[in-house]
Amino acid sequence: MFSLACYFPLFISMASRTSRARQWFWGDPKFSWTLLLWAPANLFLVCIPEEAMFRMLIQGKLVIWLVAHGYRPFLSIYAAAILFGLIHFRGGPVYMATAAMAGVAYGFAYQAKRNPWHPALAHFGLNLTHFLHLAYPFSRH
């Protein structure tokens, strides 16, 4: 069931192409040639490396350390999420807070199954939804 939640942003993007769904979702998705360049670059150069570092390395090591010192392992999710938010400092405080909240979701995605693909695909789905429905400077027609 959790796997479906990881792909939810992608489903929103695909569903919003129907005329009825456009009434429910914000705007009209921006499909352009830049998506062909952006999607693989974002998946392989942003989502997979970030999630591998934050979930497998940072969160994974924090779980081991926290359990060894008598703490609950779920605290590693929040610690990794705070660090995840901090690396997004160039977007400003609201963006950092949003990234930290997304980091909590990605952390729970990883913790649930210990599968790095779940948070990476959820991250990509969120970025894809952002790319298609919100403003990116180079995606305007």
| Uncertain stretches | 137-141
Q: Count the beta strands.
A: 0
Helix fraction by DSSP (H/I, runs of at least 4): over 70%
Strand fraction:
under 5%
Shape: elongated
Measured between the Cα atoms of the first and last residue, the distance is 37 Å
| C-alpha-based Rg, rounded | 16 Å
The overall pLDDT, averaged over residues, is 82
The string of secondary-structure elements, in order, is HHHHHHH
Q: Biggest sheet: strands, sense, closure?
A: none
Structural class: mainly alpha
SS field, number of helical segments? 7
What does this structure look like?
The protein is an all-alpha fold and 141 residues long. The protein has a domain at 38-135. It contains 7 helices and no strands. The radius of gyration is 16 Å and the shape is elongated.
How would you briefly describe this protein structure?
The chain has helices at residues 2-6, 8-15, 19-24, 34-68, 75-86, 93-113, 117-133. The chain is mainly α and 141 residues long.
